[in-house]
User: What shape does this take?
Amino acid sequence: MTTTTLAKAINDGLRHALSTDPSVLLLGEDIGRLGGVFRVTDGLCADFGPARVVDTPLGEAGIVGTAVGLAMRGYRPVCEIQFDGFVYPAVNQIISQLAKYRHRSGGRIAMPVVIRIPYGGGIGSIEHHSESPEAYFAHTPGLKVVTCATPGDAFTMIGQAVSSDDPVIFLEPKRRYWTKGELNGAPPLDLHRARTVRTGSDLTLVAYGPLVAPALEAARIAEEEGRSVEVIDLRSLAPLDTDTVMASVLRTGRLVVTHEASRTHGIGAEITARVQEEAFYALEAPVLRVTGYDTPYPPSRLEEDWLPGVDRMLDAVDRSLAH
Assistant: This one.
């Protein structure tokens, strides 16, 4: 059993992909000699060379546009966007070209492109460096959107994403980059399956990415108060594994969804709608959401008040169980 950080697990996954498939290329700003601002690609350029681990100019639209062209020529490009808020100049390439090309070509041309995006807050940084853009991409047909919460998932999911013939937005919770965990030898879960990370019988708490750890802490505290909370790590945001969520809600009758992104039109709203469509008569209380606020990301001194944390999750648990 190997213990490593989430960042190193992604590095290991990329190293494995580069070693086993000569069509895999990495592209991004400062990912070569520097190893990326978070050092996720550290050492890969030295081992595989600058022709496969490519330092690009500062131009996100160019990075993604180049990846689209490489994919059309049979390569499997993996792009790094340096920070979440820097992805917006590339949105036209992602939505207008990358997401549509396979459908446009009647399935004849695959688009095996991974776009890695460090996302979310919690590192004391400012706007454009702490954002949660997942809903933009999850709303776009043709894109798969996933996020990892543990080193074990980080290693297996980046490999599965690189192997996909469809474009994958791979969201990396930057404040968890230095979280340590085990890489076990268990068979990997399908890339688009949710995982029940803690079982419970009174309420279902759905989280993903950076908020899985606080959700587990909230469940632990709730247990001390005699409340049994089941925690689901969603892992895949597009497509959504609603079967796992629905099976849990049918047993517990209560649901709280939490994410760092703003509340309105977020992933929580989609899950809420689907549960109310398919499991309305099993619900004992309204579905509640614990999210970031509908404001631009705040200055770093205020982010702890802005980000959903254990206290706000426990408050939602109390309100649901009191209903």
The first helix runs from residue 6 to 20. Residues 253 and 284 are 5 Å apart (CA to CA). The chain has twelve helices and 14 strands. The two ends are 44 Å apart (CA to CA).
